[in-house]
Write a structure and sequence with these properties.
The protein is an alpha+beta fold and 196 residues long. Among the domains are: 41 residues, no CATH class; 87 residues, Beta-lactamase Inhibitory Protein, Chain:B, domain 1. Strands 1, 2, 3, 4 and 5 form a five-stranded antiparallel β-sheet that branches. The protein starts with 14 loop residues before the first helix and ends in a 31-residue tail after the last helix.
Length: 196
């Protein structure tokens, strides 16, 4: 005889009878139990596959466009070159006549971009450059733009004559002229009392 007292639960079935049904279900239907667990695991894996980690955008260095390089002229001073290209990423005390500019961008959905540019000086004046193929500013912007705009959902930004006529200005009631109203008093009390 069991130590558990047979207590009545919902539906008039005893606790022991419900436990027996549960035990019989688990032993009689092992495939159902296995499929239930398999379905649960599969659902969790699908949920995990939907969650993607956030990838930060990494921008390093100075972007130098082909327009900026075209603005350089031989004989420019270091300050003039710095105003056009910005501060160099690398200036070496061992190569005082050389400035190096490097640029790298990694953005989700696009290929990483790497660019290098070296500026050479002779007696503190710009002499020449060595660089990778540099894009123009518009080409660079087009390469990193990953957002596609759905133009079919944009609102129409012009109104027809019929729509404009619905918003015609209503005539304003005539306002009294200045000669009809009494002039305002121009006498104001003093802000401070005189100390004298």
């Amino acid at each position: 005889m069991s130590n558990c007292k047979s207590s009545t639960i919902k539906g008039g079935e005893s606790y022991n009878n419900q436990m027996n049904l549960l035990t019989n279900f688990n032993t009689a239907y092992p495939r159902v139990k296995a499929l239930t667990w398999l379905g649960l695991v599969f659902s969790l894996l699908n949920l995990c596959a939907c969650i993607t980690p956030y990838h930060i955008e990494v921008v390093q260095g100075n972007f130098v466009s082909s327009e900026q390089v075209q603005a350089l002229r031989p004989g420019m001073t270091r300050n003039q070159v710095r105003e056009i290209l910005g501060t160099p990423l690398i200036t070496s005390p061992f190569h005082a006549d050389r400035w190096d500019y490097a640029f790298t961008i990694r953005r989700t959905g696009t290929q990483p971009q790497h660019r290098k540019l070296s500026v050479f000086f002779k007696v503190d004046q710009f002499e020449r450059i060595e660089s990778d193929d540099l894009p123009s500013e518009s080409e660079f912007a087009a390469r990193i733009d990953t957002q596609k705009i759905n133009t079919s959902k944009l609102p129409r930004l012009e109104a027809t004559e019929k729509e404009l006529s619905a918003y015609k200005a209503k005539p304003q009631p005539a306002q009294p002229s200045d000669s009809d109203s009494a002039p305002a008093s121009m006498n104001y009390p003093p802000l401070e009392k005189s100390r004298y």
